[in-house]
Design goal:
22 strands; alpha/beta; 6-stranded mixed β-sheet; 7-stranded mixed β-sheet; single chain; 15 helices
Length: about 500
Amino acid sequence: MSLPHSLALRRDDLLPGRNFIDGQWREAAAGRWLDVSNPATDAVFAQVPDSSAGDAQAAVDAAHAAFASWRAVPAKQRAQIIKRWHALILLHQEDLGRLISREQGKPLAEGRGEVAYAASYVDWFAEEAVRANGEVIPAPVSGRRMLALKEPVGVVAAITPWNFPAAMIARKIAPALAAGCTVVCKPAEDTPLTSLALVRLAQEAGVPAGVLNIVTASRERTPEVVDVWLADSRVRKITFTGSTPVGKHLARESAATLKKLSLELGGNAPFIVFEDADLPAAVEGLMAAKFRNGGQTCVCPNRVFVQAQVHDRFVELLAARVAALQVGPASDAASQIGPMINGRAVDKIDRHVQDALQRGARVVVGGRRLPALGPNYYAPTVLVGADAAMACSCEETFGPVVPITRFETESEVVAAANDTPFGLAAYFFSNDVRRIWRVADALETGIVGINEGALAAEAAPFGGVKESGYGREGSTHGLEDYQHVKYVCQGGLG
Protein backbone atom coordinates (compact mmCIF):
# COMPACT_ATOMS: atom_id res chain seq x y z
CA MET A 1 0.00 0.00 0.00
CA SER A 2 1.39 3.42 -0.92
CA LEU A 3 1.83 6.03 1.77
CA PRO A 4 -0.51 9.04 1.96
CA HIS A 5 1.15 11.92 0.17
CA SER A 6 0.72 14.18 3.22
CA LEU A 7 3.02 11.88 5.22
CA ALA A 8 5.73 11.51 2.57
CA LEU A 9 9.16 12.82 3.62
CA ARG A 10 10.87 15.66 1.84
CA ARG A 11 14.23 14.23 2.77
CA ASP A 12 14.38 10.47 2.22
CA ASP A 13 17.81 10.02 3.84
CA LEU A 14 16.18 10.62 7.22
CA LEU A 15 15.23 6.95 6.88
CA PRO A 16 18.71 5.40 7.08
CA GLY A 17 17.32 1.96 7.95
CA ARG A 18 20.55 0.87 9.66
CA ASN A 19 22.16 0.76 13.09
CA PHE A 20 24.56 3.60 13.88
CA ILE A 21 27.72 2.33 15.56
CA ASP A 22 31.05 4.15 15.84
CA GLY A 23 30.03 6.74 13.29
CA GLN A 24 28.95 4.19 10.67
CA TRP A 25 25.52 3.07 9.45
CA ARG A 26 25.52 -0.72 9.61
CA GLU A 27 23.24 -3.66 9.04
CA ALA A 28 22.79 -6.19 11.85
CA ALA A 29 25.70 -8.61 12.02
CA ALA A 30 23.34 -11.56 11.59
CA GLY A 31 21.60 -9.97 8.60
CA ARG A 32 18.11 -10.06 10.15
CA TRP A 33 15.48 -7.36 9.59
CA LEU A 34 12.52 -5.97 11.52
CA ASP A 35 9.40 -4.68 9.75
CA VAL A 36 7.98 -1.28 10.70
CA SER A 37 4.27 -0.78 10.04
CA ASN A 38 1.78 2.09 10.02
CA PRO A 39 -0.72 1.46 12.85
CA ALA A 40 -3.47 3.14 10.83
CA THR A 41 -3.39 0.25 8.36
CA ASP A 42 -0.88 -2.30 9.72
CA ALA A 43 0.87 -2.00 6.35
CA VAL A 44 4.67 -2.43 6.46
CA PHE A 45 6.49 0.58 5.03
CA ALA A 46 10.09 0.23 6.25
CA GLN A 47 12.64 -2.15 7.71
CA VAL A 48 15.38 -1.73 10.31
CA PRO A 49 18.02 -4.17 11.60
CA ASP A 50 16.90 -6.86 14.02
CA SER A 51 20.02 -6.70 16.14
CA SER A 52 21.54 -9.23 18.49
CA ALA A 53 24.20 -9.46 21.19
CA GLY A 54 27.08 -8.83 18.80
CA ASP A 55 25.63 -5.53 17.63
CA ALA A 56 24.99 -4.45 21.22
CA GLN A 57 28.58 -5.32 22.13
CA ALA A 58 29.96 -3.34 19.21
CA ALA A 59 27.96 -0.31 20.33
CA VAL A 60 29.39 -0.50 23.86
CA ASP A 61 32.92 -0.95 22.51
CA ALA A 62 32.51 2.22 20.45
CA ALA A 63 30.96 4.24 23.28
CA HIS A 64 33.64 3.17 25.75
CA ALA A 65 36.45 4.02 23.33
CA ALA A 66 34.98 7.48 22.69
CA PHE A 67 34.30 8.38 26.33
CA ALA A 68 37.74 9.64 27.33
CA SER A 69 37.95 12.10 24.46
CA TRP A 70 34.33 13.24 24.66
CA ARG A 71 34.44 13.99 28.39
CA ALA A 72 37.56 16.08 27.75
CA VAL A 73 35.77 18.29 25.21
CA PRO A 74 35.14 21.66 26.90
CA ALA A 75 31.55 22.08 28.04
CA LYS A 76 31.04 25.10 25.80
CA GLN A 77 32.11 23.12 22.75
CA ARG A 78 29.80 20.22 23.66
CA ALA A 79 27.01 22.76 24.08
CA GLN A 80 27.65 24.20 20.62
CA ILE A 81 27.34 20.75 19.05
CA ILE A 82 24.09 20.09 20.91
CA LYS A 83 22.82 23.51 19.84
CA ARG A 84 23.49 22.59 16.20
CA TRP A 85 21.52 19.38 16.75
CA HIS A 86 18.65 21.46 18.15
CA ALA A 87 18.67 23.72 15.10
CA LEU A 88 18.62 20.75 12.72
CA ILE A 89 15.69 19.17 14.57
CA LEU A 90 13.65 22.36 14.18
CA LEU A 91 14.74 22.72 10.55
CA HIS A 92 13.35 19.23 9.85
CA GLN A 93 10.29 19.53 12.10
CA GLU A 94 7.86 18.73 9.31
CA ASP A 95 9.64 15.59 8.16
CA LEU A 96 10.14 14.36 11.71
CA GLY A 97 6.50 15.05 12.53
CA ARG A 98 5.38 13.07 9.50
CA LEU A 99 7.67 10.23 10.43
CA ILE A 100 6.26 10.11 13.96
CA SER A 101 2.72 10.02 12.59
CA ARG A 102 3.58 7.25 10.12
CA GLU A 103 5.15 4.88 12.63
CA GLN A 104 3.27 5.82 15.82
CA GLY A 105 -0.13 6.90 14.48
CA LYS A 106 -0.69 10.18 16.30
CA PRO A 107 -2.31 13.04 14.32
CA LEU A 108 0.14 15.11 12.34
CA ALA A 109 -0.41 18.21 14.47
CA GLU A 110 0.64 16.18 17.50
CA GLY A 111 3.60 14.76 15.60
CA ARG A 112 4.84 18.26 14.83
CA GLY A 113 4.21 19.27 18.43
CA GLU A 114 6.24 16.35 19.72
CA VAL A 115 9.20 17.42 17.60
CA ALA A 116 9.08 20.89 19.14
CA TYR A 117 8.80 19.30 22.59
CA ALA A 118 11.80 17.06 21.91
CA ALA A 119 13.79 20.02 20.62
CA SER A 120 13.06 21.98 23.81
CA TYR A 121 14.96 19.35 25.84
CA VAL A 122 17.90 19.45 23.46
CA ASP A 123 18.07 23.23 23.72
CA TRP A 124 17.71 23.17 27.52
CA PHE A 125 20.51 20.70 28.08
CA ALA A 126 22.79 22.45 25.61
CA GLU A 127 22.51 25.44 27.92
CA GLU A 128 22.85 23.34 31.07
CA ALA A 129 26.13 21.84 29.80
CA VAL A 130 28.00 25.02 30.71
CA ARG A 131 26.36 25.23 34.16
CA ALA A 132 27.59 21.94 35.64
CA ASN A 133 29.18 23.85 38.49
CA GLY A 134 30.89 22.20 41.42
CA GLU A 135 31.43 23.57 44.91
CA VAL A 136 34.25 24.99 47.00
CA ILE A 137 33.76 23.64 50.51
CA PRO A 138 35.01 25.72 53.47
CA ALA A 139 37.84 23.67 54.97
CA PRO A 140 37.67 22.83 58.69
CA VAL A 141 41.43 23.36 59.12
CA SER A 142 43.96 25.75 57.65
CA GLY A 143 46.19 24.79 54.76
CA ARG A 144 43.57 22.72 52.98
CA ARG A 145 41.32 23.19 49.94
CA MET A 146 38.20 21.05 49.51
CA LEU A 147 36.24 20.79 46.25
CA ALA A 148 33.19 18.87 45.01
CA LEU A 149 33.45 18.33 41.25
CA LYS A 150 30.75 17.03 38.92
CA GLU A 151 31.85 14.44 36.37
CA PRO A 152 30.07 12.36 33.72
CA VAL A 153 29.10 8.88 34.88
CA GLY A 154 30.46 7.20 31.73
CA VAL A 155 28.71 5.09 29.10
CA VAL A 156 24.92 5.40 29.29
CA ALA A 157 22.45 2.83 27.93
CA ALA A 158 19.13 4.43 26.98
CA ILE A 159 16.03 2.32 26.35
CA THR A 160 13.07 4.29 25.03
CA PRO A 161 9.31 3.66 24.57
CA TRP A 162 7.10 3.85 21.50
CA ASN A 163 4.57 6.49 22.56
CA PHE A 164 6.86 9.53 22.15
CA PRO A 165 9.64 8.33 19.85
CA ALA A 166 11.25 11.78 19.50
CA ALA A 167 10.71 13.29 22.94
CA MET A 168 11.79 10.30 24.99
CA ILE A 169 15.09 9.79 23.18
CA ALA A 170 15.86 13.53 23.16
CA ARG A 171 15.40 13.95 26.89
CA LYS A 172 17.75 11.02 27.56
CA ILE A 173 20.46 11.62 24.96
CA ALA A 174 20.67 15.42 25.32
CA PRO A 175 21.57 15.45 29.05
CA ALA A 176 23.94 12.52 28.58
CA LEU A 177 25.87 14.35 25.86
CA ALA A 178 25.76 17.61 27.82
CA ALA A 179 27.26 15.91 30.87
CA GLY A 180 30.08 14.39 28.81
CA CYS A 181 28.73 10.83 28.69
CA THR A 182 28.66 8.59 25.65
CA VAL A 183 25.51 6.69 24.72
CA VAL A 184 24.21 3.38 23.45
CA CYS A 185 20.50 3.40 22.70
CA LYS A 186 17.76 0.95 21.79
CA PRO A 187 14.47 2.51 20.66
CA ALA A 188 11.13 0.72 20.91
CA GLU A 189 10.56 -1.95 18.28
CA ASP A 190 7.28 -0.31 17.16
CA THR A 191 8.80 3.14 16.51
CA PRO A 192 12.51 2.96 15.67
CA LEU A 193 12.52 5.27 12.65
CA THR A 194 12.17 8.62 14.42
CA SER A 195 15.05 7.74 16.74
CA LEU A 196 17.28 6.83 13.81
CA ALA A 197 16.38 10.10 12.08
CA LEU A 198 17.32 12.09 15.18
CA VAL A 199 20.65 10.29 15.37
CA ARG A 200 21.22 11.09 11.69
CA LEU A 201 20.76 14.77 12.53
CA ALA A 202 23.05 14.48 15.57
CA GLN A 203 25.72 13.07 13.26
CA GLU A 204 25.27 16.07 10.96
CA ALA A 205 25.52 18.39 13.96
CA GLY A 206 29.03 17.10 14.62
CA VAL A 207 28.64 14.52 17.38
CA PRO A 208 31.92 12.57 17.07
CA ALA A 209 32.07 8.92 16.07
CA GLY A 210 31.36 6.54 18.94
CA VAL A 211 29.77 9.15 21.18
CA LEU A 212 26.22 8.25 20.13
CA ASN A 213 25.30 4.73 19.02
CA ILE A 214 21.89 3.22 18.29
CA VAL A 215 20.77 -0.34 17.62
CA THR A 216 17.27 -1.55 16.77
CA ALA A 217 15.78 -4.90 17.68
CA SER A 218 12.51 -6.81 17.65
CA ARG A 219 10.54 -7.51 20.81
CA GLU A 220 11.92 -11.05 20.78
CA ARG A 221 15.57 -9.98 20.54
CA THR A 222 15.43 -6.92 22.80
CA PRO A 223 16.37 -8.93 25.92
CA GLU A 224 19.46 -10.25 24.11
CA VAL A 225 20.57 -6.72 23.26
CA VAL A 226 19.83 -5.18 26.65
CA ASP A 227 21.34 -8.08 28.61
CA VAL A 228 24.71 -7.28 27.02
CA TRP A 229 24.53 -3.76 28.40
CA LEU A 230 23.33 -4.92 31.81
CA ALA A 231 26.24 -7.33 32.17
CA ASP A 232 28.96 -4.98 30.90
CA SER A 233 30.66 -3.09 33.73
CA ARG A 234 31.69 -0.36 31.27
CA VAL A 235 28.04 0.70 31.04
CA ARG A 236 27.68 2.87 34.13
CA LYS A 237 24.07 4.02 33.80
CA ILE A 238 20.74 2.70 32.51
CA THR A 239 17.97 5.14 31.67
CA PHE A 240 14.62 3.55 30.85
CA THR A 241 11.05 4.63 30.24
CA GLY A 242 8.49 1.85 30.17
CA SER A 243 6.63 -0.66 32.27
CA THR A 244 7.23 -1.27 35.96
CA PRO A 245 7.93 -5.03 35.53
CA VAL A 246 10.68 -4.30 33.00
CA GLY A 247 12.06 -1.54 35.22
CA LYS A 248 12.29 -3.95 38.13
CA HIS A 249 14.13 -6.44 35.92
CA LEU A 250 16.63 -3.76 34.89
CA ALA A 251 17.18 -2.78 38.53
CA ARG A 252 17.81 -6.39 39.56
CA GLU A 253 20.18 -7.12 36.70
CA SER A 254 22.07 -3.84 37.19
CA ALA A 255 22.88 -4.73 40.78
CA ALA A 256 25.87 -6.92 39.88
CA THR A 257 27.74 -3.90 38.51
CA LEU A 258 25.96 -1.24 40.62
CA LYS A 259 24.92 0.90 37.68
CA LYS A 260 23.21 4.21 38.21
CA LEU A 261 19.54 4.02 37.17
CA SER A 262 16.85 6.42 35.99
CA LEU A 263 13.53 4.60 35.75
CA GLU A 264 10.36 6.34 34.56
CA LEU A 265 7.81 3.56 34.90
CA GLY A 266 4.08 2.87 34.96
CA GLY A 267 1.44 5.21 36.28
CA ASN A 268 -2.15 5.17 37.48
CA ALA A 269 -2.83 8.89 37.60
CA PRO A 270 -5.87 10.19 39.49
CA PHE A 271 -7.76 13.26 38.23
CA ILE A 272 -9.91 14.83 40.95
CA VAL A 273 -12.67 17.40 40.44
CA PHE A 274 -13.85 19.05 43.65
CA GLU A 275 -17.22 20.73 44.10
CA ASP A 276 -15.63 24.20 44.07
CA ALA A 277 -13.80 23.65 40.77
CA ASP A 278 -14.33 25.67 37.62
CA LEU A 279 -16.09 22.84 35.75
CA PRO A 280 -15.49 24.01 32.16
CA ALA A 281 -11.80 24.48 33.01
CA ALA A 282 -11.70 21.03 34.60
CA VAL A 283 -13.22 19.49 31.49
CA GLU A 284 -10.66 21.19 29.28
CA GLY A 285 -7.88 20.13 31.62
CA LEU A 286 -9.03 16.53 31.44
CA MET A 287 -9.29 16.67 27.64
CA ALA A 288 -5.71 17.94 27.42
CA ALA A 289 -4.35 15.43 29.90
CA LYS A 290 -6.32 12.36 28.84
CA PHE A 291 -6.64 12.48 25.07
CA ARG A 292 -3.16 13.59 24.12
CA ASN A 293 -1.73 10.83 21.93
CA GLY A 294 -5.04 8.99 22.22
CA GLY A 295 -4.52 8.38 25.93
CA GLN A 296 -1.24 6.58 25.30
CA THR A 297 0.88 8.54 27.77
CA CYS A 298 2.35 7.57 31.12
CA VAL A 299 0.92 10.65 32.85
CA CYS A 300 -2.58 10.63 31.37
CA PRO A 301 -5.38 10.33 33.94
CA ASN A 302 -6.36 6.71 34.46
CA ARG A 303 -8.91 7.26 37.25
CA VAL A 304 -11.26 10.25 37.33
CA PHE A 305 -12.93 11.19 40.62
CA VAL A 306 -15.74 13.78 40.63
CA GLN A 307 -17.38 15.07 43.80
CA ALA A 308 -21.06 14.12 44.07
CA GLN A 309 -22.39 17.70 44.02
CA VAL A 310 -20.99 18.37 40.52
CA HIS A 311 -20.77 14.83 39.14
CA ASP A 312 -23.71 14.91 36.75
CA ARG A 313 -22.94 18.36 35.35
CA PHE A 314 -19.28 17.45 34.82
CA VAL A 315 -20.22 14.23 33.01
CA GLU A 316 -22.62 16.14 30.78
CA LEU A 317 -19.96 18.70 29.81
CA LEU A 318 -17.28 16.07 29.30
CA ALA A 319 -19.49 13.78 27.23
CA ALA A 320 -20.25 16.59 24.80
CA ARG A 321 -16.56 17.30 24.29
CA VAL A 322 -15.58 13.64 23.91
CA ALA A 323 -18.40 12.87 21.48
CA ALA A 324 -17.13 15.66 19.21
CA LEU A 325 -13.59 14.26 18.90
CA GLN A 326 -12.64 13.33 15.35
CA VAL A 327 -11.06 9.88 15.04
CA GLY A 328 -9.01 9.00 11.97
CA PRO A 329 -5.57 8.52 10.45
CA ALA A 330 -2.78 11.06 10.72
CA SER A 331 -3.06 11.69 6.98
CA ASP A 332 -6.45 13.35 7.63
CA ALA A 333 -5.91 16.90 8.88
CA ALA A 334 -9.19 16.76 10.81
CA SER A 335 -8.11 13.81 12.97
CA GLN A 336 -7.77 14.47 16.69
CA ILE A 337 -7.45 10.85 17.81
CA GLY A 338 -5.40 8.40 15.76
CA PRO A 339 -5.08 4.63 15.90
CA MET A 340 -3.69 2.83 18.91
CA ILE A 341 -0.16 1.52 18.45
CA ASN A 342 -1.15 -2.09 17.66
CA GLY A 343 -3.79 -4.79 18.07
CA ARG A 344 -2.58 -5.78 21.53
CA ALA A 345 -3.26 -2.25 22.75
CA VAL A 346 -6.82 -2.28 21.36
CA ASP A 347 -7.47 -5.67 22.93
CA LYS A 348 -6.41 -4.36 26.34
CA ILE A 349 -8.59 -1.26 26.05
CA ASP A 350 -11.60 -3.34 25.08
CA ARG A 351 -10.93 -5.80 27.90
CA HIS A 352 -10.92 -2.95 30.41
CA VAL A 353 -14.18 -1.52 29.08
CA GLN A 354 -15.92 -4.89 29.03
CA ASP A 355 -14.72 -5.65 32.56
CA ALA A 356 -16.08 -2.31 33.78
CA LEU A 357 -19.47 -2.94 32.15
CA GLN A 358 -19.71 -6.41 33.67
CA ARG A 359 -19.00 -4.90 37.11
CA GLY A 360 -21.72 -2.27 36.85
CA ALA A 361 -20.26 0.69 34.98
CA ARG A 362 -22.23 2.38 32.19
CA VAL A 363 -21.09 3.79 28.84
CA VAL A 364 -21.96 7.43 28.27
CA VAL A 365 -19.92 7.89 25.07
CA GLY A 366 -18.01 5.41 22.90
CA GLY A 367 -17.17 2.02 24.35
CA ARG A 368 -16.47 0.21 21.08
CA ARG A 369 -13.88 -0.65 18.46
CA LEU A 370 -13.99 1.23 15.14
CA PRO A 371 -13.09 -1.44 12.54
CA ALA A 372 -14.45 0.62 9.65
CA LEU A 373 -11.54 3.05 10.13
CA GLY A 374 -8.84 0.38 10.39
CA PRO A 375 -7.54 -2.43 12.58
CA ASN A 376 -6.35 -0.39 15.59
CA TYR A 377 -8.98 2.24 16.31
CA TYR A 378 -11.05 2.59 19.48
CA ALA A 379 -13.75 5.18 20.12
CA PRO A 380 -13.06 7.83 22.77
CA THR A 381 -15.03 6.60 25.75
CA VAL A 382 -16.61 7.92 28.94
CA LEU A 383 -17.74 5.47 31.61
CA VAL A 384 -19.63 6.29 34.80
CA GLY A 385 -20.00 4.13 37.88
CA ALA A 386 -16.35 3.03 37.95
CA ASP A 387 -14.92 1.60 41.16
CA ALA A 388 -11.62 0.40 42.57
CA ALA A 389 -12.27 -3.28 41.76
CA MET A 390 -12.37 -2.72 38.00
CA ALA A 391 -9.36 -3.45 35.80
CA CYS A 392 -9.41 0.13 34.51
CA SER A 393 -8.77 1.32 38.09
CA CYS A 394 -5.94 -1.13 38.79
CA GLU A 395 -4.05 -1.20 35.49
CA GLU A 396 -2.97 1.47 33.00
CA THR A 397 -5.52 1.38 30.19
CA PHE A 398 -3.24 3.37 27.86
CA GLY A 399 -6.09 4.42 25.62
CA PRO A 400 -8.90 6.97 25.19
CA VAL A 401 -11.10 5.76 28.06
CA VAL A 402 -12.29 7.95 30.97
CA PRO A 403 -13.71 5.93 33.89
CA ILE A 404 -15.48 8.25 36.36
CA THR A 405 -16.01 7.54 40.05
CA ARG A 406 -18.30 9.62 42.25
CA PHE A 407 -16.92 10.65 45.68
CA GLU A 408 -18.22 12.49 48.73
CA THR A 409 -15.35 13.85 50.85
CA GLU A 410 -11.82 15.14 50.44
CA SER A 411 -10.32 12.57 52.78
CA GLU A 412 -12.11 9.77 50.92
CA VAL A 413 -10.79 10.79 47.52
CA VAL A 414 -7.22 11.41 48.69
CA ALA A 415 -7.15 7.92 50.19
CA ALA A 416 -8.52 6.46 46.94
CA ALA A 417 -6.05 8.43 44.82
CA ASN A 418 -3.13 7.11 46.87
CA ASP A 419 -4.44 3.52 46.97
CA THR A 420 -2.13 2.28 44.22
CA PRO A 421 1.46 1.06 44.06
CA PHE A 422 2.16 3.73 41.45
CA GLY A 423 3.00 7.39 41.96
CA LEU A 424 3.88 9.20 38.76
CA ALA A 425 1.35 12.02 38.25
CA ALA A 426 -1.86 13.34 39.80
CA TYR A 427 -4.24 16.16 38.88
CA PHE A 428 -6.94 18.03 40.75
CA PHE A 429 -9.17 21.03 40.19
CA SER A 430 -10.24 23.28 43.06
CA ASN A 431 -10.54 26.99 43.80
CA ASP A 432 -10.14 26.61 47.58
CA VAL A 433 -6.60 27.75 48.40
CA ARG A 434 -6.45 25.85 51.68
CA ARG A 435 -7.67 22.66 50.02
CA ILE A 436 -5.14 23.09 47.21
CA TRP A 437 -2.20 22.93 49.60
CA ARG A 438 -3.70 20.15 51.72
CA VAL A 439 -4.29 17.91 48.71
CA ALA A 440 -1.03 18.76 46.94
CA ASP A 441 0.86 17.77 50.10
CA ALA A 442 -1.16 14.58 50.59
CA LEU A 443 -0.91 13.12 47.07
CA GLU A 444 1.82 10.47 46.78
CA THR A 445 3.14 11.27 43.31
CA GLY A 446 6.23 12.80 41.77
CA ILE A 447 4.16 15.26 39.71
CA VAL A 448 1.02 17.19 40.69
CA GLY A 449 -1.07 19.32 38.35
CA ILE A 450 -3.33 21.88 40.08
CA ASN A 451 -5.98 23.38 37.79
CA GLU A 452 -3.76 22.34 34.89
CA GLY A 453 -3.82 19.37 32.51
CA ALA A 454 -0.60 19.94 30.56
CA LEU A 455 2.32 19.38 32.91
CA ALA A 456 5.51 18.58 31.04
CA ALA A 457 8.19 21.19 30.38
CA GLU A 458 11.93 20.96 29.80
CA ALA A 459 12.64 23.15 32.84
CA ALA A 460 10.62 20.95 35.21
CA PRO A 461 11.70 17.66 36.84
CA PHE A 462 9.74 14.70 35.44
CA GLY A 463 9.55 11.41 37.34
CA GLY A 464 7.70 9.36 39.91
CA VAL A 465 7.76 7.78 43.35
CA LYS A 466 6.80 4.33 44.65
CA GLU A 467 6.65 1.79 41.80
CA SER A 468 6.63 4.53 39.18
CA GLY A 469 10.42 4.64 39.49
CA TYR A 470 13.12 7.08 40.50
CA GLY A 471 15.39 9.64 38.92
CA ARG A 472 14.27 12.78 37.12
CA GLU A 473 14.29 13.93 33.50
CA GLY A 474 14.34 17.57 32.49
CA SER A 475 15.44 20.49 34.68
CA THR A 476 18.80 20.81 36.41
CA HIS A 477 18.02 17.54 38.19
CA GLY A 478 17.95 15.81 34.82
CA LEU A 479 21.57 16.72 34.18
CA GLU A 480 22.61 15.57 37.66
CA ASP A 481 21.28 12.10 36.89
CA TYR A 482 24.13 11.73 34.35
CA GLN A 483 26.84 12.92 36.73
CA HIS A 484 28.57 11.80 39.88
CA VAL A 485 30.31 13.96 42.48
CA LYS A 486 34.02 13.69 43.10
CA TYR A 487 35.42 15.11 46.33
CA VAL A 488 38.94 16.55 45.92
CA CYS A 489 40.97 17.50 49.00
CA GLN A 490 44.35 19.19 48.73
CA GLY A 491 46.41 19.63 51.87
CA GLY A 492 49.80 21.12 52.72
CA LEU A 493 48.85 24.59 51.62
CA GLY A 494 49.53 26.30 54.96
